[in-house]
Input
Amino acid sequence: MLLAVVFTAASLAATAANPTQAARPELAAALGHALSAPDVDPGRTAALAVDVRTGEVVYQANPELALAPASAEKLAVSFAALRLLGPGFRFRTEVSGAGELLGRAWEGDLFLVGYGDPTLAPADLDALAGDIAAWGIRRVTGRVLGDESHFDARRTAPGWKSSYLGLESPPLSALVVDDVEVSGANDSAAAAARAFSAALGRRGISVAGSPRAGRAPADGVPLALDLSEPLAAIVRQMNRESDNFVSEMLLKELGASVARRGSSAAGASVVRAALADAGVPVAGVRITDGSGLSALDRLTARSLVKILRTGAADPAIRDAFVTSLAVAGVSGTLRKRLARRPTRGRVIAKTGTTSKASSLAGFVRRRYVFAVIQNGSPLPYWSARAAQDRFVTVLARN
Output
């Protein structure tokens, strides 16, 4: 079992309590000293640590300062998604037909319809092709068309550098197949159609027309369905490995499912509203994308700590949320960090790193919940990370 930190019912109840003022000056002094780092501006550093058993604030520095959170942003998105969609939610991908089945031929077109599954893979297309073959179809007189209309046509998120597309994330289309090459930002749906046409061919089904993008008719005949793994598993992969594409697709799906607009902006509004509804302080909070790549994102140390405490105390999402965090020295982005005693296996957290921001937020043993955010122009990430690691090491020793 990768998760080495176990929450008891008592500790979770304490996690939900409101924090009280610090009463341990020696520990606060040690934590403040640990955060001091060369070339890291204390005026652009925010930190908060709370004893989850007592609600005591053991350290705070600029806890309401709104800073770019880097990938700690994913905590807000995963928290909202698990609460609103549920840990059992599954993305779907469908095949529908426009036409009719005559003997062994589908007279018309087939549509591969994407609903934002960030984990869609060639093996899923092969399975869908097998379902089509099971109908007895051996020939398609039309073509395969890829439908990405579940989300909007914007392929990046607000505040992204142009270099992020293709480097940090594939295009943000509702129909993207992992490891399938695309020729441009708007080629995802057509590329998926080409890949599915090839999968049909491997099943002995010939397709007369050339694959391309297109929109499925509302009255299409449903022929095949693929479902993703449950959201709990997807969020676990997203947070442990800090997967930017998954978080962006999840944000758009929140927009599509809750606000009926599959856009980053709609999803961001849903996330902020979900935070406010859960009692997370949203003064200074600005959700722009799902991954934390955007230069426009802002969170506070207090909001991050509240997200963590509330997620860990909610029995409906607790297991999915808490086990999505990387384990120090064991898994995800903490696999090679904090790998020695007293932190190995005793710290679970979400990391975040860009050229201008670094963050670490999570739990130390059953004792502390914490968040550290550092910003700079640029920020020396190695120095910032070293300070974060010293901070949680002090907590682990107390």
Q: What stands out?
A: The longest helix spans residues 244-259. Residues 1-15 have pLDDT under 50 and may be disordered. The CA atoms of residues 183 and 191 lie 8 Å apart.
